[in-house]
Design goal:
Radius of gyration: 29 Å
Shape: flat
Strand content: under 5%
Oligomer: single chain
Number of strands: 0
Structural class: mainly alpha
Largest sheet: none
Length: 195
């Protein structure tokens, strides 16, 4: 009798495992397909971002050479530069690797702030330095290598921008506090009788 029960139990367990395999197999394969699709979309975004950053790097090199011979249009007034920089930022946001996406987002932020003088460096030389590092990051990601360290000069620039933004935030909070005090005084003055 125990052999009969063992056979029945074995058949039931085998049937349950077979049914579970049949049910879970499409789910597992669709999950793997979604992961592969996200990876391929991320790689496509990284390739696109890499071509954009190479275009920016060439533009900075051209502008550096022009700056030596004639006055070129400042980047702050160049709508093409801002459009390309925004497109780069959009492609960066599609990259699925969080550490790479964060580092490139910081570089994109630096590229949006080329008006500051950096160690007696022209904004074009500064921009070229940033785009070279972004290109290195994207190249290593596309090759599947580990990401390189951020160069010291770029780390300093990022720290400077963070410090400046914190300082502006503190100043803005002080301005808002002063405005609130003035508005409170004005309301108090309006509520007093005129005599």
């Amino acid at each position: 009798m125990s052999d009969a029960w063992a056979g029945i139990i074995g058949a039931a367990v085998g049937g349950v495992i077979g049914v579970l395999g049949t049910i879970l197999s499409p789910y597992m394969s669709s999950r793997a397909k979604r992961r592969d699709d996200r990876r391929s979309e991320s790689l496509a975004a990284a390739r696109s971002a890499h071509s954009i950053v190479l275009k920016l790097e060439d533009d900075f090199e051209r502008r550096t050479l022009l700056r030596q011979t004639e006055d070129d249009q400042p980047l702050q007034n160049d709508p093409d530069y801002h459009a390309v920089r925004r497109e780069f930022g959009a492609q960066v946001s599609l990259i699925s690797d969080p550490p790479l996406r964060r580092r490139l987002a910081k570089l994109t932020y630096l590229l949006s702030d080329l008006s500051l003088e950096r160690d007696k460096m022209s904004p074009f030389t500064y921009g070229r330095r940033i785009t070279e590092h972004a290109s290195d990051l994207l190249s290593t990601y596309l090759r599947g290598d580990s990401l390189p360290a951020t160069p010291d000069d770029i780390v300093l620039w990022l720290q400077h921008i963070q410090w400046r933004d914190e300082m502006y935030e503190e100043q803005w909070q002080e301005i808002l506090a002063i405005r609130e005090e003035e508005e409170a005084r004005a309301r108090a003055d309006q509520s007093k009788p005129p005599f």
